[in-house]
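Lab meeting, item 3. Inverse folding demo.
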């Protein structure tokens, strides 16, 4: 392996840092990971060189990002990892943000510093961190183009970073679906700055509405807060806004608080559509009792500075608002599209993220790029490709037929390689035992029928399945495969997996993944959400559903315990207690993070 010096072109072995000064039209510097919003520009001009220490023979692993995936990877790497790799982390955001509790910052329930942790503290002695946004990737030369964004009176600098292995974890961007006015007038909800801006806007709306000359019509407009998106983020933002008004603002604005409205707009016919329907129904009922208006089966047609135009089953309507939060949809980061274009034709077919193999290695990168989190989609292997092999192994008597119990056993064994078969194996096993064990198992099977494929539902406990029928079953099951959700839970598991892969198997650039390495398998740990009035909802695999005040206590304890440092655990616990005893801090001035 040729030696390379940090921040220099691959052809140079000078041990010098190459800094490229700002050129014309490099695009607006943004404090978000990677690229400018519209295009990737790697244009360069004159250079300046600064002496630093020379590079080593260790493979350089450059990690992009400071979100769930990158931080989980860094935390799980052993302290001695610097003996094997030269770890360099690039991100324009120099802290990790615990996004699950961001709605509580927006409502003043938590302070912003309680849910962030310094990247330099997380990395420690494992590697080096540089605050910079990556604006271009040259996969052929294995080089990044990055810049230190212009802010705080410091000029922008551009430089190149060579890598041996790139870990790509830049996340995604907000999807506006091309709807007019969203970019200009709605509040997004992905950063501390977004949460603070929303909190300040709510406080300003109440202050403006409280002025004596404010008309009733203007007051009602100012105190209408619309949240677009009925997923977990939208539901939690709406719940926190309701709590803020009910618990705190009504004490300080007794004459006008009743004019406040919180509206939740959802395109589908129920909120929390990825959760169990019983949780969705519970949330809808609780919102209705609390006075949170649900506008389901409703799409946003446009947004202007004063009102939204909505279209539902009963036609179009306009909703004047004081603040509108856009909490729905993600799309591909511009840098991800730039990277996709450099991969060999046919290797990158996904329209939202970059495709990896089951070891999280980007397809077409020849073992030099790994990707995780929202930026990546793991290509899951299909069991149909090995249907005959699986069938023959289960057909122990060689008569060419399998019973329902045999099919369940075959899927259970194959689930070690094809994890999506495990759920169907349990379903068939219950079905085969339904006659033997009676009503309890029969009821479980009936509950699972709605989730099972049509072919599996039609299998009788005493059926006989031939190879053709077995192939049809696997084809139907494979067709149910979906991309992993863009959540912190997925990114965290992927980061921990990569940490184990690098530390245990000593991954080398350009070489195949060692045969003894196990592929990545996602294990869903459950779903939870805060729904207001000190109530929460949870669904936990193999345990069931929890709703109400008990679920809230578990949710609060879990989110506190899940903080990545002891400092964060203490701060979140203290803030929660403080807001309960003394109320939320509703005074809010302009601050920059």
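The presenter then showed the designed sequence:
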């Amino acid at each position: 392996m040729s030696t390379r010096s940090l921040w220099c072109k691959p052809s140079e072995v000078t041990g010098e840092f190459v800094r490229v000064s700002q050129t014309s039209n490099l695009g607006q510097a943004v404090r978000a990971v990677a690229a400018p919003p519209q295009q990737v520009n790697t244009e360069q001009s004159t250079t300046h060189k600064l002496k630093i220490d020379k590079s080593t023979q260790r493979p350089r692993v450059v990690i992009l990002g400071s979100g769930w995936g990158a931080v989980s990877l860094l935390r799980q790497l052993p302290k001695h990892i610097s003996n094997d790799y030269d770890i360099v982390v690039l991100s324009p955001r120099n802290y990790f943000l615990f996004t699950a509790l961001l709605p509580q910052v927006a409502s003043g329930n938590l302070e912003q510093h309680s849910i962030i942790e310094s990247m330099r503290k997380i990395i420690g002695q494992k590697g080096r961190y540089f605050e910079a946004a990556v604006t271009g990737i040259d996969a052929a030369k294995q080089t990044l183009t990055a810049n230190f964004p212009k802010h705080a009176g410091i000029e922008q600098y551009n430089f190149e970073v060579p890598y041996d292995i790139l870990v790509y974890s830049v996340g995604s961007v907000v999807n506006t679906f091309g709807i007019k006015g969203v970019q200009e007038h709605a509040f997004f909800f992905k950063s501390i700055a977004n949460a603070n801006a929303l909190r300040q806007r709510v406080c300003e709306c109440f202050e403006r509405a409280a002025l004596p000359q404010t008309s009733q019509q203007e007051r009602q407009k100012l105190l209408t807060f619309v949240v677009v998106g009925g997923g977990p983020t939208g539901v939690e933002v709406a719940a926190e806004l309701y709590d803020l008004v009910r618990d705190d603002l009504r004490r300080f604005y007794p004459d006008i608080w009743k004019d406040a409205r919180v509206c939740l707009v959802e395109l589908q016919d129920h909120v929390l559509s990825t959760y169990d329907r019983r949780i969705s129904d519970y949330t809808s009922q609780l919102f209705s009792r609390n006075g949170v208006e649900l506008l389901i089966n409703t799409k946003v047609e446009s947004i202007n500075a004063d009102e939204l135009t909505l279209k539902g089953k009963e036609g179009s309507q306009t909703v004047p608002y004081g603040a509108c939060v856009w909490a729905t949809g993600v799309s591909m980061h511009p840098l991800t599209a730039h990277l996709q274009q450099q991969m060999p034709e046919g290797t990158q077919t996904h329209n939202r993220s970059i495709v990896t193999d089951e070891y999280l290695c980007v397809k077409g990168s020849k073992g030099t790029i790994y990707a995780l989190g929202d930026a990546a989609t793991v290509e899951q292997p299909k069991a149909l490709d090995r249907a005959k092999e699986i069938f023959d192994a289960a057909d122990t008597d060689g008569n060419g037929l399998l019973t329902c119990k045999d099919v369940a056993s075959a899927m259970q064994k194959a689930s070690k390689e094809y994890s999506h078969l495990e759920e169907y194996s349990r379903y068939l096993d219950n079905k085969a035992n339904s006659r033997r064990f009676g009503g309890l198992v029969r009821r479980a099977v009936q509950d699972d029928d709605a989730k099972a494929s049509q072919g599996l539902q039609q299998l009788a406990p005493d059926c006989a399945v031939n190879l053709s029928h077995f192939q049809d079953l696997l084809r139907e099951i494979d067709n149910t495969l979906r991309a992993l959700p863009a959540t912190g839970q997925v990114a965290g598991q992927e980061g921990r997996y990569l940490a184990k892969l690098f530390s245990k198997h000593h991954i080398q650039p350009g070489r195949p993944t060692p045969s003894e390495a196990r592929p990545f398998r996602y294990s869903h740990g459950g779903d939870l959400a805060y729904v207001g009035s000190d109530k929460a909802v949870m669904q936990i695999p193999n345990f069931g559903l929890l709703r109400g005040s008990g679920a809230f206590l578990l949710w609060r304890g879990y989110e506190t315990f899940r903080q990545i440092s002891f400092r964060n655990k203490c701060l979140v616990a203290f803030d929660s207690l403080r807001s309960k005893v003394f109320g939320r801090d509703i005074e809010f001035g302009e601050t920059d993070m």
